[in-house]
Design goal:
Distance between the termini: 31 Å
Helix content: 40-55%
Strand content: 5-15%
Low-confidence stretches: none
Strand order of the largest sheet: 1-3-2
Radius of gyration: 18 Å
Order of helices and strands: HHEHHEHEHHHEEH
Shape: globular
Largest sheet: 3 strands, parallel
Length: about 220
């Protein structure tokens, strides 16, 4: 979800204003996802939103305070979003959550508890997430368990694997043409869809549908 700060700057506002606009897009996306799954023959069962990277935690204190406030309100809003419950979406969090403000952790805990009995679809929210950090954690888990360190053992320790979620099929990114290390281990055969001319707050339902249609039209051979 890239481009909140640029969106705000282009309109003469502070970064936090852009983050609030980005949160609105996130809530809209949940509604679009729910509608798509109820109206199409094939469901998109898993969706991951990268809300905050590990690198983002190095931003200035004023912006971080505003960003944490946005995340707290957004998580609590999602917990009471009708489409989440109507579509029975379970929300799970991944990333380095230790050290986040208590009000953010409280909102995370509430959202996970409110949806813990659902299983029709899963929304992962990446907070304090870094691709290299995930791989290092997976390797350390293997070493700590006493298993042999190999491709299979590391694959069993990624966030996706631990939550019984398949590797990533499609990455959609606004405004940039890079993945920034998103789910490094589980994106070996991932398709990419870049929206160069859109900042995250400008994303529309049509953009999402086009990305899915583009993905569906591709021949995926997994390197074979």
């Amino acid at each position: 979800m890239d481009g909140n700060r640029r969106y705000a700057k282009l309109r003469g506002h502070k970064a936090v204003w852009g983050h609030w606009k980005g949160a609105t897009t996130w809530l809209n996306l949940i509604d679009w996802w729910s509608y798509f799954n109820s109206s199409e023959k094939q469901e998109v069962k898993y969706m991951t939103l990268w809300a905050l990277s590990k690198e983002n935690l190095q931003r200035n204190p004023e912006e971080l305070a505003g960003l944490f406030a946005v995340l707290t309100v957004t998580f609590r809003s999602i917990a009471f979003t009708a489409s989440i419950h109507r579509s029975q979406v379970r929300v799970r969090f991944i990333g380095a959550l230790t050290g986040l403000p208590q009000h953010v952790l409280g909102a995370i805990d509430m959202l996970e508890r409110e949806t813990e009995n659902y299983s029709r679809a899963v929304m992962l929210v990446a907070v304090g997430y870094g691709g290299r950090d995930e791989v290092l954690r997976a390797v350390q888990d293997v070493l700590d368990s006493g298993e042999d360190l190999n491709e299979e053992s590391v694959s069993r320790k990624t966030f996706c694997s631990k939550l019984s979620i398949p590797p990533v099929d499609l990455i959609i990114r606004t405004s940039e043409s890079r993945t920034s290390g998103f789910m490094l281990w589980d994106t070996q055969s991932t398709e990419l869809h870049f929206l160069h001319d859109k900042l995250w707050p400008e994303l529309t339902a049509r953009d999402c549908i086009h990305a899915i249609e583009s993905f569906a039209s591709r021949e995926r051979r997994g390197g074979k």
